[in-house]
Amino acid sequence: MSPIFKFIFSIATSLFLVFLLHISILHLLNLPIFENKIIEAYIINFFMAIGIYYGLLLLKKKYSDQLGFLYMGGSFIKFIVFFLVFNPSYKLDGKMDFLEFAAFFTPYAVSLIFETLGVIKFLKK
Q: How far apart are CA 58 and CA 55, in angstroms?
């Protein structure tokens, strides 16, 4: 199995399980389940992680010495997407509450872990 398909399978499975856990906790605490763009956050982080990983996979031979910087550039793109897509709706009431933060940061953190592990594998080779 190719590295990209292993990555897609691993991150899809992990994000799906974390999503189920996330919405289960919200349900158990009687909190709104599908608010705060939670579904969008998981989907966007999934596709951005795949894009960043795939981009790094394509560039690893030509730019192996700069792979860490390219990885950081991918993280910068994720921050831009957050500030363009999520932050405006989260700040409508003038503040970002914990549920809004968790809706974005949970899939972001899971994706970041997978991207980091992928880069570590690239750098070891």
A: 5
CA 74/CA 48 separation, integer angstroms: 8
- Rounded Cα distance between 107 and 110, Å, is 5
DSSP character at residue 29: T
41, burial (CB in 10 Å: exposed 0-12, middle 13-18, buried 19+): buried
pTM of the model: 0.88
Residues with Cβ within 8 Å of 23's Cβ and at least 6 positions away in sequence, in order, are 33, 34, 38
Residuewise pLDDT in 10s, the chain (125 residues): 788 899 999 999 999 999 999 999 999 999 999 888 999 999 999 999 999 999 888 888 887 778 778 888 888 898 898 888 887 887 777 777 888 889 989 999 999 998 888 878 877 76
Quote the distance between the C-alpha of residue 63 and its chain's center: 23
Measured from the Cβ of residue 109, the count of other Cβ atoms closer than 10 Å reads: 12
What is the residue type of 56?
A: L
